[in-house]
Amino acid sequence: MNEFENLYLTIKDRKQNPEAGSYTAYLFDKGLEKILKKVGEEACEVVIAAMKDDKSEQVNEVCDLMYHLMVLLAQLDIPLADVCEELGRRSAKTHNLKAERKPIEKL
Ligand SMILES: N=c1c2ncn([C@@H]3O[C@H](COP(=O)(O)OP(=O)(O)OP(=O)(O)O)[C@@H](O)[C@H]3O)c2ncn1[C@@H]1O[C@H](COP(=O)(O)O)[C@@H](O)[C@H]1O
């Protein structure tokens, strides 16, 4: 299991079994509007960090955004696997298109 799957499982568990002191449980308690606000804020913070010359800050901000996006997925009851499958479909499509194009390019 990779870090994304692991984190998503923890997030889903916090939704089903809220723990006192858990920030994730706090977000689910506040609801969709709060989660959307956080996703927007964190996306802006990624943009701001990307304009600075600090890789560590950039990685930290991307992690914050990814975490909040996963909270949003859980709030919407979208399995992480659905996102992975869609990415896989896009990737397969791209590779198939490239494979189809190759013989034409060789002519
Ligand atoms: N990956 C994260 C993670 N990334 C960011 N954050 C929290 O996101 C918040 C972002 O900071 P901000 O200053 O923008 O927000 P804030 O002022 O604290 O909160 P608001 O008042 O804006 O709601 C911080 O409180 C961080 O702790 C996270 N909180 C939890 N996790 C993971 O989620 C899992 C469950 O953790 P708990 O929710 O603590 O049980 C664990 O694996 C954690 O590592």
UniProtKB/TrEMBL annotation:
Keywords carried by this UniProt record: Amino-acid biosynthesis, ATP-binding, Cytoplasm, Histidine biosynthesis, Hydrolase, Nucleotide-binding
Top-level taxon of the source organism: Bacteria
Catalytic activity: 1-(5-phospho-beta-D-ribosyl)-ATP + H2O = 1-(5-phospho-beta-D-ribosyl)-5'-AMP + diphosphate + H(+)
Gene Ontology cellular-component annotations: cytoplasm
GO-annotated biological processes: L-histidine biosynthetic process
Pfam families the record matches: PRA-PH
An example molecular function term from Gene Ontology annotations: phosphoribosyl-ATP diphosphatase activity
UniProt keyword Hydrolase, yes or no: yes
Chief localization: cytoplasm
Subcellular location: Cytoplasm
E.C. no: 3.6.1.31
Involved pathway(s): Amino-acid biosynthesis; L-histidine biosynthesis; L-histidine from 5-phospho-alpha-D-ribose 1-diphosphate: step 2/9
InterPro entries (alphabetical): HisE (IPR008179), PRib-ATP_PPHydrolase-like (IPR021130)
Family as reported in the entry's similarity comment: Belongs to the PRA-PH family.
Protein's recorded name: Phosphoribosyl-ATP pyrophosphatase
Species assigned in the record: Dielma fastidiosa
